[in-house]
């Protein structure tokens, strides 16, 4: 009987030792996994994994959920604020904050977003002054929009022009969505140039003041 009891005790001790070893190994593995450094962002989309989980086109979409992007941006900036970091890490926090700001500014603006995506493909449409839209109908629409903004007497008169221009921007985003999905760089480039007109009109509408001349950049 005593031999049987001793055997049972030894078996129980062995089980406890094995369990403790497994627990320690699991804890070490978990600690190692949690402390493993994450890859640094390689493009603007990498800063916003929640709002933009699929990354840039063609895998991701060109249109962006602006509210989701804004929410994640504010959370990131709250964590990266230099005042929340010790003195020896403030410079790094400031650099990170600046990169987050630049990424958000670029992606939240459809024109800057299109230009950025094209720049990733080696195409610079933001500084190429030779890129112009020669469609006479489009140019006429731009001139009419300028006259409407300049002649408006109050904000109410700009409600319809603003709605019409917002629809043009949405339509342009749809064209860019298709172009980037097909990786059709020429089509994306042409539409980005056209979008530049609509965004300039939007900026003029947002900055409207009675009697203030309107300057639309081409």
Describe what you observe in this structure:
The protein is mainly α. Among the domains are: 44-108, DnaJ domain (Helix Hairpins, Orthogonal Bundle), CATH 1.10.287; 136-206, HscB, C-terminal domain (Monooxygenase). Helices cover 64% and strands 0% of the residues. Helix 4 packs antiparallel against helix 7. The longest helix has 34 residues, at 2-35. The protein is globular. The chain starts with a helix and ends in a 12-residue tail after the last helix. Mean pLDDT is 80; it is low at 1-37.
Short description, anyone?
It is built from 7 helices and no strands. With 218 residues, the protein is mainly alpha-helical.
CATH class term of the domain at 136-206: Mainly Alpha
Order of helices and strands: HHHHHHH
Morphology: globular
According to CATH, the fold-level topology of the domain at 136-206 is: Monooxygenase
- Beta percentage is under 5%
The N- to C-terminal Cα distance equals 98 Å
Q: What is the fourth-level CATH superfamily of the domain at 136-206?
A: HscB, C-terminal domain
Rg over CA atoms, rounded to whole Å, is: 28 Å
Number of helices: 7
Number of strands: 0
Largest sheet: none
Low-confidence stretches: 1-37
State mean pLDDT (0 to 100 scale).
80
What's the architecture of the domain at 136-206 in CATH terms? Up-down Bundle
The computed structural class is mainly alpha
């Amino acid at each position: 009987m005593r031999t049987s009891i001793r055997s049972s005790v030894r078996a129980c001790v062995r089980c406890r030792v094995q369990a403790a070893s497994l627990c320690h190994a699991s804890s070490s593995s978990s600690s190692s996994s949690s402390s493993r450094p994450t890859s640094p962002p390689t493009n603007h989309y990498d800063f916003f994994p929640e709002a933009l989980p699929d990354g840039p086109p063609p895998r991701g979409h060109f249109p962006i959920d602006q509210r989701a992007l804004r929410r994640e941006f504010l959370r990131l900036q709250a964590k990266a604020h230099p005042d929340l970091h010790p003195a020896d890490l403030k410079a790094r926090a400031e650099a990170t904050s600046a990169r987050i700001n630049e990424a958000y500014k670029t992606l939240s603006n459809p024109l800057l977003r299109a230009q950025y995506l094209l720049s990733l493909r080696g195409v610079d449409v933001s500084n190429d002054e030779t890129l112009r839209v020669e469609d006479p109908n489009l140019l006429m629409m731009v001139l009419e929009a300028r006259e409407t903004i300049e002649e408006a007497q109050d904000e109410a008169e700009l409600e319809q022009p603003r709605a019409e221009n917002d629809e043009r921007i949405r339509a342009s985003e749809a064209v860019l969505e298709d172009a980037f999905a097909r990786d059709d760089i020429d089509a994306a480039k042409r539409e980005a140039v056209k979008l530049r007109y609509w965004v300039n009109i939007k900026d003029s509408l947002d900055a409207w003041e009675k009697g203030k001349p309107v300057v639309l950049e081409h």
